[in-house]
Amino acid sequence: MSDGQMERIVLARHIVGAPTPDDFRLETLPIPALEEGQLLIANRFISCDPGTRSRLSPGASYAPPLKPGAMVDGFAVGEVIESRHPRFAAGELVMGTGWATHMVSNGRGYLAKVPDLGVPLSLWNGILGVPGMTAWFGLKRVANFKAGERVLVTSAAGPVGATAGQLAKLWGASNVTGIAGGAEKCRWLVEECGFDAALDYKAADFEAQFAEASADGWDVLFDNVGNASVDRALPVMRMKGRIVISGQVADYNFTPAEAPGIHNTREFIGKRLRMEGLVVFDDLPAFPAAQEELAGLIRAGQVKYREEIFVGLASLPAAFSGLFSGQSFGRRLIRV
Fold it and tell me: What residue ranges define each of the domains in the chain, with the CATH number in brackets?
């Protein structure tokens, strides 16, 4: 969009079950004039994040639900094209939010400058953005990961899971095993990302594979899937194991009453287990140091990533909806 116009995606209606493109609406409107203390951002990449689903139904999640007609506020990276804000100048690259071609910001909330670390811009909306930081701090702070431990990662071919597994190997894990859907994803995890093993949950013998892989137990479960995934792992956690609840992609489309329960809770007592959720913005002050170190690992080829890039804002609703039908393989991004 240009000539003073912008596009945005709004929530057309509260979503019941799995999202579809019809749950969203594309709107065109004028770019508002800047007031003192504001800046105008032209978004370059917008991400599809499964966690966004938790705000698209009327019930409250870890963030307030959006109302129909409100713009969806997924993560974005863009360029400042005009500024009346003292901390931001035209031409600077920034990380922010908004399913829109342009955003007007007052500089508050999630808005940070993108430093030049010698990596593609799209990575700041992926492995160097919220997914990568979720993996980093999920392991370091929430799991209190230690070298020599055994780590199980679910939704392991997604941007969070793949990064978490690779970091665990680089930091000295004795075994990292991922769970993913499909032989292609499992091959990529082992052959490209260095996982010790990857289990295909779509395979007919998955439960037998899981039991065999879990014979020695797990010190850390890094879960991105949901309650059924956690419940399966609880009996095979080691003494004083830690469970990181990073995401719930299998449960986001359920109401609280519909979501499966966790039944194996007696394991917490006998094994002294700890389970903790993660909202990565708790770690926001520590992002820059982690991003610089992770960018170095990417440049050195020690951390791999995949991207699926769609073109044009109008493609965003379908790309987002596809996250919940097993279509995605890598970080889904929209090139605006």
Answer: 5-117+307-335 (3.90.180.10), 130-281 (3.40.50.720)
